[in-house]
Amino acid sequence: MNTEKSKLLEYVKANNRICPIPTEWNKLYQLLKNTKRKGGGWEPALPLILAAWWETSEIQKVLRFIDHIEWAESNGQLEEISKFLFELKEEEWHHLGE
Predict the structure, then answer these.
(1) How many helices (H) does the chain have, and how many strands (E)?
(2) d(CA 47, CA 69)
(3) To bridge 71 with a disulfide, which of 12, 44, 48, 78 should be the other Cys (CB 3.0-4.6 Å)?
(4) How far apart are CA 67 and CA 83, in angstroms?
(5) Are 35 and 42 in contact (CB under 8 A)?
(6) Domain locations along the chain
(7) How many Å apart are CA 3 and CA 11, to the nearest integer?
(8) Residues 95, 27: contact at Cβ < 8 Å?
(9) Residue 81, Cβ neighbours under 10 Å: how many?
(10) Each residue's pLDDT tens digit in the chain (98 positions)?
């Protein structure tokens, strides 16, 4: 794993962070390049926001969020996405148990 990705993953997991709050997670998803319709859904899958926010577990949110980071990396956007995430205020993150 590259150093930049390691630092990002360490950061997003610090302070019991799960994922960005829905508005910020949607902004992150909008930054992702090469998203596309696939079957009845999207690739990568949409963020777990709106009704899905209340219907999914914290682990499901973490896994989907990590999928989005992986997508950014595979599309040459790790630096851009890292900058976005490092600039979020702590209150713009969803934390374990909230």
Answers:
(1) 5, 4
(2) 12
(3) 44
(4) 17
(5) yes
(6) 3-34+42-95
(7) 12
(8) no
(9) 19
(10) 679 999 999 999 999 999 999 999 999 999 999 999 999 999 999 999 999 999 999 999 999 999 999 999 999 999 999 999 999 999 999 999 99
